[in-house]
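debug: dumping io for the single-chain case to check the tokenizer round-trip. Nothing else runs in this session.
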Amino acid sequence: MSATVAACQLALADLDVEANLAAVEARVRGLPEDVAVALFPEYALTGFVADGRAVDVALSRDGPELDRVARLARDSETALLVGFVERGDDGSGTDGTGLYNTTAYVSPDGTRTFYRKRHLWEGEREVLDAGSERTVVDTPVGETGILTCYDLNFVGESAAFTREGVDALFVVGAWPGAYSENWTLLLRARALDGVRWVVGAGRTGRRDVPDAESVAYAGRSLVARPDGGIHAALDRREDDLVAELSPETLDAQRDLVGIYDDESRTPSRPTDDE
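debug: decoded output
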């Protein structure tokens, strides 16, 4: 059965959790009723700056902000993928200890699954810790791996999810506009090399925060088909990319390529991890 997904392209308010939560709520309430999963950009709830201010907006995964997201998922009957700076239980949240770039998959039934970004980009390394585990979650699209922005560059991540036989990748990003073609290319490549759907939700607008680098973001949210083609895409405007993902399209491409064994859904030949 086909599933409808939405990549909700936002211009975030860095360091303003209440404004971002309100924006997420408004966008979800405006989606078509048949949307089963809505993805939001990297750091959708908190934004990010690479200094001590990240500590001030860091959220706990069981805090009131995520409770609010869970109520939104329940009331809208839509699974939500949202990112935030997480204050973990394993550190003080200072000097790069105990803070993570985390993405939560929140189901309408209240189930929460978390992914901590494994590959940190530039300033993130100064204030965040990297995650250590990959995450696969059961979604209306099928078994789905979660990636965050710079993770796309590492083909070992794609190979690992290929061995898992996932049906889709959900990617949240805050890609700089100067490199927007790379974002598009990598999303398509990750669809092609694992023969799966890829949905990328990108941040748009600018980051203009005092004493922080100003960045214009790419937007360019898209859905890539299992053959690497573009199924649907946005430019840089704030908008919702709504697309239907068909399992028949996935099955036909996998039959054509022959990458998976019919019964085991594992690769029919070894795949290197690095």
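debug: round-trip ok. The helical segments are 17-29, 53-57, 64-76, 124-127, 155-164, 180-194, 247-257.
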